[in-house]
Amino acid sequence: MSPDKKHIITIEATIICPVEKVWKLWTDPFHIEQWNNASEDWHTPEAENDLRVGGRFRSRMEARDGSNGFEFSGEYNKVEPQHQIDYTLDDGRTVQIKFASEGEKTTITESFEAETTNSLELQRSGWQSILDNFKKYAEKCAAIEKLKFTISIDAPALKVYNIMLDDKHYQEWTSVFNPTSRFLGSWEKGSKIRFLGTDKDGNEGGMVSRIRENIRGRFVGIKHLGIIQNGKEITIGPEVEGWAGAYEDYSFTDLDGKTLLIVELDTVVHYKTYFEEHYPKALQLLKSIFESQEE
């Protein structure tokens, strides 16, 4: 390859997933760590992404056996949400990524300047393998549905917020899901929190999560990182597909002394019916806590 001539390699994949979700999965550092590898013997243990013009990104890619690793980093030149991303790698090469929405499908087209060390075919194959891995990951995540539940509670928003999240009452209203339901950790923004319950055989299970936002009396946003099986946290692997990266949000709106509580959560299709049956009961139980206090 002539060092003076730039070779542009273009790869493409069509994903059965709407562009809004594809964009989130492509740009969120948590998700990048899940799909950013060309083969199973490589992974991305760290990812950072400041998604704006002039913002920087960085991924640490490593062989799982620790034998090799490198940094993939650069700076954004163009960011058009759900349409296009242009960036320049730290070695000076440019990359353009286009997202074409086709309803429930999205086509991603990547064009990048080739480097001079490896053959064009090897580079094309490597980048295509990563894109194909993203397609596989995104289509599994596409099976997630967002559910929404609302309830009106006759109490101010700050009071509902405080009681809903305190240790004693949380165990009470979530007992609909599991009689031993509880949490360990903090509701503070950025904190790790574990949502736990014990099954009939005495095994501890649940979710390991992080509080991505907490605005007192107004909003709590949870990002689930993985599952807990027999007391062990699992954040990578087929067991967590659909759960890892899922959101669960509580919004509190004060309406003349009453509170409109809105719960929105991502769930895999298999659990949709379960949550549709149990979440209204849990919220009704939460409401009854306030009714009993009035008596």
Task: Give keywords.
Alpha-D-Glucose-1,6-Bisphosphate, Chain A, domain 4; elongated
Helix content: 25-40%
Low-confidence sequence ranges? none
Overall residue-averaged pLDDT value: 92
**The biggest beta sheet, please?**
8 strands, antiparallel
CATH superfamily of the largest domain: START domain
Structural class: alpha+beta
CATH architecture field of the largest domain: 2-Layer Sandwich
CA distance, first residue to last residue: 82 Å
Please tell me about this protein's structure.
This protein is α+β, with helices and mostly antiparallel strands and 295 residues long. 26% of the residues lie in helices and 43% in strands. The protein folds into two domains: 8-141, 2-Layer Sandwich (Alpha-D-Glucose-1,6-Bisphosphate, Chain A, domain 4), CATH 3.30.530.20; 145-294, 2-Layer Sandwich (Alpha-D-Glucose-1,6-Bisphosphate, Chain A, domain 4). The protein has six helices and 15 strands. Strands 8, 9, 10, 11, 12, 13, 14 and 15 form an eight-stranded antiparallel beta sheet that branches. Strands 1-7-6-5-4-3-2 form a seven-stranded antiparallel beta sheet. α1 (19-27) crosses α2 (29-35). The mean pLDDT is 92.
